[in-house]
Specification:
The protein is mainly alpha-helical and 180 residues long. It is built from 7 helices and no strands. 30% of the residues are buried.
Length: 180
Amino acid sequence: QQQQQQQQQQNSAHSIMDNNAPMSDEMAAFLADPEKMMFEFKVTRCPRTRAHEWTLCPYAHAGEKAARRDPRRVTYSGTPCPAHRKGVCTAGDACQYSHGVFETWLHPQRYRTAACKDGIACTRRVCFFYHKPEEAREPTMCVPCNPPSGALATIPEPTSPTAPMRSSSASIAAAAAAAA
């Protein structure tokens, strides 16, 4: 069972973006709310204690490549870290740049600030780009980010250390190609 979980985690960036599996109401709620996507998706640790298909879960899981730092708590930009892309960033969670595709494109400086090349024909479950003009948003500068008033007024304390494992440069490049 542990080997099966490791196998699933190796395909994180691709499987979470595939649109083939049925979607839970919880995942649909995240995808429909830009603020949940920017500030909670794959940031908040999963509260489930039973085994489940974590690629279809909006929460972060240990070792998951899509897991990311909380932009409300950690000061980092939506600019990809050049050292992380080479697999040599020594700053870790203290790095001022984003680590990985999900951390980069779900950052409030980037999420839905550019049009999707597929427009309304996009079939990705998780797409970082807007599909209709009404989905477009202005970039938000964060130091660290504060969510817009009301939507996420209370920030839950992390249930575990916020140092998710990061993905390799090859995985990032593959996921970025799939996302664009």
